[in-house]
Design brief:
The strands form 2 sheets. Strands 1, 2, 3, 4, 5 and 6 form a 6-stranded antiparallel sheet that branches. Strands 7-9-8 form a 3-stranded antiparallel sheet. It has 240 residues and is of the alpha+beta class. The radius of gyration is 19 Å and the shape is globular. It is built from 10 helices and 9 strands.
Length: 240
């Protein structure tokens, strides 16, 4: 029987408290299941660090010294523009920041800034490749995290061509997941979409009146995912 990290809470509670989070969240999934050896290799390859809101992990155009696997908090990815910084994505728990530039061996394509206080596993560049080569399950989960980041980047490109309400609908569809909850303030949404807070407020109010969402403190709850998806992707075939 596979000795997976799911067994850690039964047999090794201390290890589970230290590494169970990475077994559950790396790549936004718990499949393929990581073994105890995988979890120990991950934790042994890096250092757990606390990141304060506002701290910059790396800057656009500069080398990336390490990858960060996020345990909690949120990281914003942003690029410089004529009108100032433009947020082009965000990374939450289970996501990886900085690995693409590590693999490419070049400079960072975007800057990474801590949006909410975070805890992460920091792995230096010379350890990342060796870790993935020696642990195929970790490599698959890492790939999933990279694919999520790629899809987020594509989403930003698509959203540039829609109205604010359409852009907002697409963002909410992508971020809601199974729970339907999006833990983003209106200010954060405005930064991600490159829109004013007033336009975001108006778009949210319109979605509320239509019964598509409900809003709370730093939270948007998706009430009708199908109709919201149709608004975000009007040209797509939404039939089951």
């Amino acid at each position: 029987m596979l000795d997976t990290a799911r067994d850690l809470d039964l047999h090794h509670p201390r290890r589970h408290s230290a590494g169970g989070w990475i077994a559950r969240t790396l790549g936004g999934t718990d499949e393929p299941a990581l073994t105890r050896h995988d979890v120990e290799a991950l934790l042994g390859a890096g250092d757990t660090v606390k990141l304060r809101s506002g701290a910059v992990l790396h800057r656009e155009g500069e080398p990336v010294p390490a990858a960060h696997v996020l345990r909690s908090g949120r990281i914003e990815l942003y690029r410089r523009g004529r009108s100032g910084d433009r947020v082009v994505g965000q990374v939450g728990p289970g996501g990886v920041v900085g690995d693409v530039s590590l693999f490419r061996g070049g400079s960072a394509m975007s800057s990474a800034r801590v949006a909410d206080d975070a805890v992460a596993l920091r792995i230096d560049r010379h350890r990342v490749v060796a870790l993935l080569l020696g642990h195929p399950r970790i490599a698959v989960r890492w790939l999933m995290a990279g694919l999520d980041e790629l899809e987020a980047a594509r989403r930003v490109v698509r959203m540039l061509h829609g109205t604010v309400k359409e852009q907002l609908a697409e963002l909410l569809v992508a971020e809601a997941g199974y729970s339907g909850d999006v833990s983003l303030s209106q200010a954060a949404i405005a930064a991600i979409l490159g829109a004013s807070r007033q336009s975001i407020n108006e778009a949210l109010a319109d979605l509320r009146r239509s019964g598509l969402v409900a809003t709370g403190y730093r939270t948007v709850q998706v009430l009708d995912a199908a109709r919201l998806r149709h608004l975000a992707y009007p040209e797509a075939d939404h039939t089951e």
